[in-house]
Amino acid sequence: QVQLMESGGGLVQPGGSLKLSCVASRSISMIGAMHWYRQAPGKQREFVAGINKGGAINYAESAKGRFTISRDNSKNAVSLQMSSLKPEDTAVYYCHVLWLESPWMSWGQGTQVTVSS
Fold first, then answer.
1. First-to-last CA distance in the chain?
2. How many CB atoms lie within 10 A of CB 88?
3. Residue range 50-108, pLDDT digits in tens
């Protein structure tokens, strides 16, 4: 069973920083793309950032200039460095992977990020 283990969420003050990590239980060579999504209370899950197998990166407009996605191939991991956090960044953040083979797609269990003074 493929697993994605997320960590790094927590409570931070506005303007602060957090780093989220997601470790996959399968080799990163089997990964087509890794993404971060988030879901705030009462809202739909939305795309935050993504990196594909070739290293191409894209961000949601809300993340540009503040968030940085990176990949650690040696650890089968993807990270999301978040800075200049705002209260509107408060959400459950999910790791999402597109695999090159079955099961084709996986979601992590989510990690809570709360930005509040």
1. 40
2. 10
3. 999 999 999 999 999 999 999 998 889 999 999 999 999 999 999 999 999 888 999 99
Asked whether 46 and 39 are in contact (CB, 8 A), the reply is yes
* Closest to 39 measured CA to CA, from 91, 89, 80: 91
Q: What single string gives the DSSP state of each residue in 19-88?
A: EEEEEESS-GGGEEEEEEEEE-TTS--EEEEEEETT--EEE-TTTTTTEEEEEEGGGTEEEEEE-S--GG
Helix (H, G, I), strand (E, B) or coil at 89: helix
Q: Which two three-digit tokens encode residue 35?
A: 């993404």
92 vs 115: CA distance, rounded Å: 11
Radius of gyration, alpha carbons of the chain: 14
- Comparing C-alpha atoms, which of 9, 13, 32, 7 is closest to residue 101? 32
